Amino acid sequence: MRKITLLMLLFSMATFSLWAGGYQVRLQGQKQTGIGLIGTPFAFGASSIFYNPGSLSFMKEEYSLSGGVSAINSNVIFREKDSDYIARTNNKLSTPFYFYGATKVIDDLSVGVGVYTPFGSSTTWDDDWHGRYLIQNIALSAIFIQPTVSYKIKDIIGIGAGLSIVLGSVDLNQKLPAPVNGEVNLNGKSTALGFNIGGYFRPNEKFNIGIDYRSNVNMKVEDGDTKFTNIPTALASDFPPTGKFNAELPLPANLDFGLSYQLTEKFLLAAEMNYVFWSAYDSLIIDFKENNETLQDSRNPREYSNSLIFRLGGEYKFTEKLIARAGVYYDPTPTNEDYFTPETVSLDQFAFTLGLSYLPVKGLSIDLSYLQLEGLESDKNYSPENFAGTYKTRAFIPGIGLSYNF
Amino acid sequence: MKYRYILFIGLAAVLFACQPELDDFSTSQGSADFSTYVALGNSLTAGYADGSLYRTSQLNSYPSILAEQFKKAGGGNFVQPLMNGEYGILPGKLKLGYSTDCLGTTGLSPLPSNGALDAITPLGYQVNNLGVPGAKSFHLLAQGYGDMAGIGVYANPYYARFASSALSTVVGDAIAMMPTFYTLWIGNNDVLYYAIAGGVGDTITGQSTFTFAMNTIVMGLASTGAKGAIANIPDITGIPFFTTIPSNGYVVSQNQADSLNMFLGGYGFHYEAGPNYFIIEDANAPLGFRQMVAGELLLLTLPQDSLKCAYWGGFNPILQIPVAIPGQYVLTNDEILNIENAVVGYNATIESLANQYDLAYIDMNAKMQDLSDEIITNGVTLNAEFVTGNAFSLDGIHLTPMGYAYIANEFIRGINSKYGSTLPVVSLTDYQSVILP
User: Fold this and answer.
1) Which value does ipTM take for this structure?
2) Which end of chain B, N or C, is less surrounded by CB atoms within 10 Å?
3) In this complex, which of B18, B108, B390 lies closest to A396 when CB atoms are compared?
4) From the candidates B372, B429, B434, which should be mutated to test the interface with A, based on the most A CB atoms within 10 A?
5) What is the pLDDT of residues B85-95, one digit of tens each?
6) Is residue A105 one of the residues assigned to a domain?
7) Into how many domains does chain A fold?
8) Torsions phi, psi of B410, nearest 5?
9) pTM of the model
10) What is the pLDDT of residues A119-139, one digit of tens each?
11) Is A18 exposed, middle or buried, given 0-12, 13-18 or 19+ CB atoms closer than 10 A?
């Protein structure tokens, strides 16, 4: 039975990795989403808590509230190497949401709190799909709660900082290959801390510069639940029905730098770069509390690389009550050539966005957004398990939000 | 107006077509013609597994898997001499079960699995899979090999089921199918039967006999104009049948080692505390028995209770005598060398035939070596580990459906490479291996 130990390396799916790569979509404000997910060079009010705490202090009214929800509909298609086998994901709709509230303490000092879900998705493959020994399905959620303070100096410079309390959970299923032919479920929760600091510079009314740094958040699952099912009697002692595991995964730091310029009275243009410190994701280690000769801890290489995202967007003000937005961006995959797993189908992505705000009464804005991501067709391999094929992805994400400033 | 309407629908389609698409795999036959495919070979071609040829194992034979892929590129119907039941025509099927050994220890091992056998009667129809368990190279040319009246004497019951007449030959029946494509994998038994008899009780087919037989077979098939693929012979000593029982499994204490060395040390025996080489019969040894040496192999058929409780391979402390393992359970290095030399010669013949007749040449020797070492695909690991290695069935010689799928893929790769076809491979994850209780 020694060789089963090797088979156990199949714990190759990341518990959290859907937070990774292409699924780190910053749907934390419908206005920002509409304009190519650019956020740092704007002062749209309370949603600055996420995008740039530095610009929060530039809120115009005494109170600012903002909330919204998006519907992520993402699909992956996979064709096995040298084979006519094709599989598609059967993903459930996932619905990241956000809510922010902020107030001015004094004219130059604002405080607020945001609750948002920047990472959360699900990938579901069919039960008998050919990658079932790598991942069957995975569901993740992470809720960030971020109290924030922001201060501005002479209406030119704003600085701000927030502390993020991150509540995460994961649930995943994987089949165990022959001769085990069973299944495993891992389910765990984690709590972690991070921070978000930003600076906002407005040299004149037309030109805005934003810079923001969101820290790495190290998500640790301690004493997560392991469930083994359909294990042959002959191996029952090696795979106890219930057990515990530890695992951790870094949610990488982001450094964002953005510019916006009011070209004409009606037309604004913006650009942003995000540097994502993905190299923090080196490997996924599942540490089973009870090991035996067969059930060993599993160490799965990921070896992500840092990535740089480019965004371009524009806003056009038709009337005081109707504003349209559009944007594009390119998000290169942080994944490693040799360690591309179907639990995180993160390809080089091209995306475009559309947005619309309607302001029926003073202070109230109804914000709509649409984001479409195209993962570019690419041949990939997870070499430790020799799982190779061609992937392509598409996600379309409509969103709706409300903001009220008074 | 109409134009604008179409544009609008087009835009909507781009925006809301939620499913990404990939081109389908493009299957083509290249310069091959798979419309009538016949498979020639032995038990491996028939789909033999778990000590038997039974319906499910036949359905997972590599020719059956190949034929399914051929059908995607113009291949026709593929008829196999299917059994009705799951126990074949002869007893001997194995299943995994619990048994208690002479020491009272209960463990998993292959056990006889008895059920209703198929009758040995003529099927009355032509078959595309002409794999005959037990066949050696020259048997494919032997008249009477399918004679019902000769079963147990000169005929083979598996061939007798589908032989076109009492005097037909396997190759003749294959030619009568008017094949457009064939696969040929024969010659394993020309050394295997010698090997599984422990080098006693069977002989290795001589090189000249083998060469003559192979030449005649391939020449006959070539007369139909069919294209084909021919596979060479794997090094059989790497299969679980020979590698599962360790040759140095005789465990002694320091005291036992000391007294054994005192007793037998003068004859070249050597013992240390821990595992030691077993004692085997050897007519050429001064005592008529000797200790095994590195590289020598024990057969899976060796009764393990005799090792554990009857002092086989060790020393009987009651009678104060060494107990040698009978030669029929042992492959000595001399015997292994005989096998290896024969395989080298056979494979030279097969390769030159492949070149001469411009056939796809499948280096199954290398591919089976890869399999024995370790193949990982889609998260499944295959190797030559007995029971748990996924590749070999419970007889330790023949393959599991997953193992046969691996063989089919190697044929597909070789055929694609030779004929410029693009046949898709199969995924090993779609096939079973040994099921643990």
Assistant:
1) 0.90
2) N
3) B18
4) B429
5) 999 999 999 99
6) yes
7) 1
8) -70, -35
9) 0.92
10) 766 789 999 999 999 999 988
11) buried
